[in-house]
Amino acid sequence: MPQTTTASMPQASETTPPRVGFSEWIDQQTGKLFVLPAVVILLAFAIFPLLISAYLSLTKFKLAAGGFSLSYVGLRNFKKLFFGSQQYHLLGTFDAFGIFEWAVFIAALALVAYWFWRFFTGGHFNIPGLIGRLITATVMVALLWLTLATVFGGHPGSLVVTLFYVLVGVSLQFGIGLGLALLCGQAIRGRNAFRIIFFIPLMVTPVGIAYMFRMLADMQRGPLANIWQWFGLGEFSWAADPWTARLVVLIGDTWQWVPFMFIVLLAAVENMPRDQLEAAKIDGAGGWQIFRDITWPSIAPVAATIVLIRLIEAFKIVDLPNVLTNGGPGIATESLTLHSFIAWRTQDLGGSAAVGYTLLFVATVSCVSFFNFIGQKTRKTEL
What we know:
Helix content is about 70%, strand content about 5%. The chain has about 375 residues and is mostly helical. It folds into three domains: about 30-75, no CATH class; about 95-155; about 155-380, MetI-like (MetI-like fold). The strands form two sheets. Strands 1-2 form a two-stranded antiparallel sheet. Strands 3-4 form a two-stranded antiparallel ribbon. α4 (about 75-85) crosses α17 (about 350-380), α8 packs antiparallel against α14 (about 285-315) and α14 (about 285-315) packs antiparallel against α17.
């Protein structure tokens, strides 16, 4: 009889893969199964409303017998915002440039040209980077032109007012928060009590803060009425002047968000390398030198991160202008979010969605540009 060698026999393990039981398959897919509910919730509560609002921005909403009707109008809602009857509400009314406005605008164009020249001659040219810089430069130059044309002589709309809240508010909050963090990072008496006191405003709801500042700013019957009258401001109506109304909203927003900046920057300050600080002090370095060469490079990545988070949140401001001034006087204190809310309240769902997508575009370009051109540089500096 011919003998069959082991090498000539087929190996079952090589031809037929082992069957995986249901329990083993569950074990292999555990990670995906645990992530699946979060993905479903994200799609249901984030992506789906985003798509629906995009569709609404292209339609006109009407009440009809038994419900409502949506008729497709294309880009008519956006055309109405930028070039039609709602232009004054979104963009404001324009005025011709004077010498100061032209000087600022030309200086900005020169900086943009220098920025592109550095990009082309720096040896890091790439197509995605060029596209990103073109989008950023176009949007920023357009917003600067809009600001100069409406603030100095004209009347700013909700877009410029939102930029005022974002740029001035976040800068002020960061400066105060950084100063408090550096102060409480020192070995001073009672610094733990100061930390708790500075953190309290972050625990109050925005609506509560708005009502609180509404009472404090009441110059006739508020708790500080006697002080206002002593300064001769008892008969002054801050809500009737556009810029004082915006300033009151800005002060309330700053009081609310300084603790966020403070607590995160304080953690960054306290985690700095102490050996470098002690060596700098021994070498006779001054306070400004220590901050410039040691403190700031150490906390810059954290600072860029919290500014980015605050920028995203600042674009959504709605509680304070709604409660303090109801967007007034006129539309002087309306943010884009409040503008969208008011349009929705008047059942102009298409216009409301169009304002929301305008806000989404401006906020996305601003925050992505900040992250790419400022946030990443701080991380490279740290490395």
